[in-house]
Structures are given as structure tokens and as C-alpha cells.
Write a structure and sequence with these properties.
Elements (H helix, E strand, L loop, with lengths): L2 H7 L5 E3 L6 H18 L6 E6 L6 E6 H15 L5 E3 L4 E2 L1 H8 L3 H9 L6 E3 L2 E5 H28 L5
Antiparallel strand pairs: 1-4, 2-3, 5-7, 6-7
Length: about 160
């Protein structure tokens, strides 16, 4: 099936998840693939990467945007490390449950953050929807604040010679 037909028939899924960590075999395959692609990672001056799809009847080289290839390598790296992966479109709208899972908090805690206006959301009937971009902005800001507080605690502990 031509790529243009695939694009027209299958809209972008805003959130794609490998819900469980990859098997040991999949992790090993990902490691091997990363090693095979390693020479291509040094080519930073090109905007595209050319891949050859050998599984097709007529092997054909395909130009892939470098950003897409880099994302592919990141996914392989995470799989090689045994991690589950979620791919989310930046403009996707998430349910409160999806957003809570991404932040690794309970759904009631996330709702509290929304009600305190710490994360923007919109109401769709009785349901709340959070833009992925807003959620990741909050997550990054929260991580910076946590690091600042930890650094402050460590400095205080050193000041009082508590062994940290």
C-alpha cells in the first residue's frame, strides 16, 4: 500500500504506548540495531537519513527526516535499556488518567493540580482534557523546582556537617 494511502486512511494516534517493558529478546534486538545504526548517528550535517527497506520485494531507499530517525534511535535506546515507551503528539489532549500516569501521580492529585490552576485544562462536558504540551511544561518546571530544593537541602546538610 502506498504511503499516501496510509496517511489518508489512518489519522495520527495522539498517544502510542508500549505498555509493558520489552522482553529480554526485544531489548537485545534493540541493542543490536543501535550498534548497526551507530555510524549513521555521526552524520549531523544532513537533514535526512536514507534507509533501505530490504524486506520488500523491490528494495528501495527511503529518505527519513533526521529528527524522525533520531526519535527512532531514542526509542531503540529506551527499549535496549528495558524501558517501556510512550510516544505522544505535542498537541494531543490527554485524559486526567493519562496525564496522571505521565506525571506518576494519582488521578485525584492531578485533579487537585488542575483545580489549583497549576496546569491548564479545558472542560469537555464533565471531562477535563489536558494538552500534552502544557503537561510537559508543568513537569519540566516541577523538576527544576525539585532540583533546586534538593540542592538547598544538600547545602544545608553540608553546612551542619551531616555527612551529605
Amino acid at each position: 500500500m502506498p504511503i499516501s494511502s496510509i496517511e489518508l486512511q489512518q489519522p495520527l494516534i495522539p498517544m502510542t504506548t508500549l505498555t509493558s517493558p520489552p522482553s529480554r529478546e526485544s531489548s537485545e534486538e534493540a541493542r543490536k540495531a543501535l550498534r548497526a545504526f551507530e555510524p549513521l548517528t555521526r552524520r549531523t550535517h544532513r537533514r535526512t537519513v536514507r534507509l533501505r527497506a530490504a524486506a520488500t520485494e523491490t528494495a528501495k531507499a527511503i529518505d527519513v527526516p533526521k529528527e524522525a530517525f533520531d526519535l527512532f534511535l531514542e526509542i531503540l535506546g529506551q527499549m535496549a535499556n528495558g524501558n517501556a515507551v510512550t510516544l505522544i503528539a505535542v498537541n494531543a489532549e490527554l485524559t486526567t488518567q493519562q496525564a496522571a500516569e505521565i506525571l506518576n501521580v494519582s488521578r485525584p492529585h492531578l485533579v487537585k493540580l488542575l483545580e489549583e490552576k497549576k496546569i491548564p485544562f479545558r472542560q469537555v462536558g464533565t471531562h477535563r482534557r489536558i494538552r500534552a504540551e502544557d503537561l510537559f511544561r508543568h513537569k519540566a518546571k516541577d523538576e527544576v523546582e525539585r532540583k533546586r530544593l534538593l540542592d538547598e537541602l544538600a547545602a544545608e546538610a553540608q553546612k551542619h556537617k551531616l555527612g551529605y
